[in-house]
Design a protein that fits this description.
four-stranded antiparallel β-sheet; about 90 residues; elongated; alpha+beta
């Protein structure tokens, strides 16, 4: 019986949990910088953010209810990478 080395398990855990390093404040700050008001995070996805429309290098996708610069209530997806990639806003 062959056992998996512990370091491989630790490495896999770290690579799949990078989205947890992105805070809700980072997501809301990204929206505020682009003129959005209010920030209610409805869902955070750290397992496969590319399935939610984010890029392959993103570590987090967050579905956010907010008010756009024109005053309309909208739901957007904020995609964030970690540690060297910032966040982007994706509309539906």
């Amino acid at each position: 019986m062959q056992t998996t080395p512990v370091y491989l398990i630790v490495l896999a855990s770290l690579l799949t949990s990078c989205g947890y390093m992105v805070s809700d404040a980072d997501v809301c700050r990204t929206l505020a910088t682009q003129g959005f008001r209010g920030c209610t995070i409805a869902d955070r996805n750290t397992v496969a953010p590319s399935w939610a429309g984010c890029g392959e290098s993103d570590a987090l996708s967050a579905e956010v209810q907010t008010v756009n610069p024109l005053g309309a209530s909208v739901v957007v997806t904020v995609c964030c990478g970690w540690p060297f990639k910032g966040c982007t806003i994706r509309s539906r």
